[in-house]
């Protein structure tokens, strides 16, 4: 059986995390990639489980060697990215790999690892996305507005992806992604 890397992308509050948890629960052969970061571990975080914690110099070396599938500087301070080697190791071990990334990350992966299958998770409507973001209540009005503006940009780029899955129901969206994964194997 052939295994692959699958990029999962979508706007804030679309339910990416929920769908990914369902994928992992339903298909034990899927491995969720672990990001590398230059930030310090928080209490309870374990190197190689939550993140690969690296020094800024080690991160630079990975980038310069082409060993990052994608990376970014977040809030002008810490860098995060997807190391190539663990992804390849998981694929070589016969596992499908999920990479949960933002739009910029998906575009970088398209360049650095073009064999990865790109899946965009979309809301049924923009109004549904607004409602989900407001209902979860984790952001104030200014942050919600900023996230919704970013979501408009991300939704406008959905056609860049190999597949678009509408998350109108978590179980149905999960089924659709599993079907995509199965058809590609």
UniProtKB/TrEMBL annotation:
UniProt main location, coarse: cytoplasm
Any GO CC annotation of this UniProt entry: cytosol
Quickly give the catalysed reaction. Answer: GMP + ATP = GDP + ADP
Q: What Gene3D superfamilies does UniProt report for this protein, alphabetically?
A: Guanylate Kinase phosphate binding domain (3.30.63.10), P-loop containing nucleotide triphosphate hydrolases (3.40.50.300)
Please state every residue range assigned to the domain named Guanylate kinase-like. 3-182
Query: Which InterPro entries does UniProt cross-reference here?
Result: GK/Ca_channel_bsu, Guanylate_kin-like_dom, Guanylate_kinase, Guanylate_kinase_CS, P-loop_NTPase
Q: Which CDD domains match?
A: GMPK
List UniProt keywords, sorted A-Z. Answer: ATP-binding, Cytoplasm, Kinase, Nucleotide-binding, Transferase
Pfam families of this UniProt entry?
Guanylate_kin
Q: Per the record's keyword annotation, is DNA repair included, yes or no?
A: no
Write out the residues that bind ATP: 10-17
Q: Which GO terms describe its molecular function?
A: ATP binding; GMP kinase activity
Which EC number(s) are documented for this chain?
2.7.4.8
Query: Mind telling me which NCBIfam families this protein's record contains?
Result: guanyl_kin (TIGR03263)
Tell me, what does this protein do in biology?
Essential for recycling GMP and indirectly, cGMP.
Q: What protein am I looking at?
A: Guanylate kinase
């Amino acid at each position: 059986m052939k295994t692959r890397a699958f990029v999962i992308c979508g706007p804030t509050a679309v339910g990416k995390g929920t769908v990914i948890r369902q994928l992992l629960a339903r298909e034990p052969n899927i491995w969720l990639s672990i990001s590398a970061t230059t930030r310090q571990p928080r209490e309870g975080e374990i190197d190689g489980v939550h993140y690969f914690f690296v020094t800024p110099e080690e991160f630079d070396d990975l980038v310069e060697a082409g060993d990052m599938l994608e990376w970014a500087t977040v809030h002008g301070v810490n860098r995060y990215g997807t190391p190539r080697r663990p992804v390849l190791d998981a694929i070589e071990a016969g596992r499908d790999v999920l990479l949960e990334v933002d739009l910029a990350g998906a575009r970088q992966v398209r360049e650095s690892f073009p064999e990865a299958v790109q899946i965009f998770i979309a809301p049924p409507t923009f109004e549904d996305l607004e409602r989900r973001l407001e209902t979860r209540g984790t952001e104030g009005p200014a942050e919600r507005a900023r996230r919704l503006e970013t979501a408009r940009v991300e939704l406008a780029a959905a056609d860049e992806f190999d597949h678009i899955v509408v998350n109108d129901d978590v179980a149905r969206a999960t089924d659709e992604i599993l079907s995509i994964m199965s058809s590609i194997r």
